[in-house]
Amino acid sequence: MPQMIDVRSDTVTQPTPAMLEAMLQAQVGDDVFGEDQTVNELQSKAADLFAKEAALFCPTGTMSNQIGIRVHTQPGDEVICDELAHIYLYEGGGIAANSGASVRLLKGDNGRFTAEQVRENINRRDDSHLPWTRVVAIENTVNRGGGCCWDLREIEHIRVVCREHAIAMHLDGARLFNALVARNETPRDYGHLFESISICLSKGLGAPAGSLLLGSRALIDKAHRHRKLLGGGMRQAGYLAAAGLYALEHNVKRLRDDHRKAKVLEGQLRSLPYVSTVLPVETNIVIFTLDERLATDSFLQQLQHQQVRALSMGRQTIRFVFHLDVSDAQLEALLAALRGIRLAA
Ligand SMILES: *Cc1c(COP(=O)(O)O)cnc(C)c1O
Fold first, then answer.
1. Measured between alpha carbons, how far apart are the two ends of the chain, in Å?
2. Which ligand 1 atom sits closest to the C-alpha of 172?
3. pTM of the full predicted structure?
């Protein structure tokens, strides 16, 4: 069994020999000239999957989100998102820095707000005092929400409200494939609801890097310009795109297995005396809080002694994320390590 059980994030995966082989075989060219056939293949494959006209390969999910916001806004416009949103919390204030836009934060149910909340928070464009609401951003699955999934019907209701007010919708789908697998949905179910969609290849899908922004031809042409401004134009990026193609082909269905393991862990956590609350587990993320008698540092240190690496997400709050490098044997070892935790270390 490999030494460390690393459940800090689903970004820690190592490319498998088969993925590396696909990368080695990639036909590449200068993508800034549009001449990398593997990048082009990945972009058109992803666009087709979601029934979108076009896609843009970006180095990170942060960049594809930031470009997604930028193409919908002008400085002084407003973005509506949940207070737990990655685009707000974990992208370095990029909405302000890159788009000059302000943010209206909604307090949702673990990151999921309602169409009614959106309606109540739209600023009308006939009042020049107000920042104009231009885009509503949704995150699915919600990272800070314990990997929970949105109800597609609520997104459809939000779509109706946004259409009424000519507001665009952006999807931060860093882990959208986890939601699709968990809810038996398809990429096309989402494609027609959002003007822009960002998906990550380097989370549960197991590629070493890469993200895609999907949208209309016109939106992606604009996005191309903004990717340049952010310094995100890469040259022989086909080696990375090949990993992304491999991931889309081979690593989607298997996400189910990560979800199963997370569910097993949830069951055990609910029976441990030092665990206070566990967010309902639906996909590969498990977020829980520790009893006040057990300090976060002590908990993480004791786990580390048992070869387990996990992450603190704020006060008394711990996150475990399952991914393709955690085996069943490692899950068993993790459960045993948790049973061995002592209150006073
Ligand atoms: C990881 C993640 C991103 C993108 O992160 P990068 O590290 O920039 O690729 C965006 N949104 C969510 C919800 C994420 O978890």
1. 26
2. 11
3. 0.97
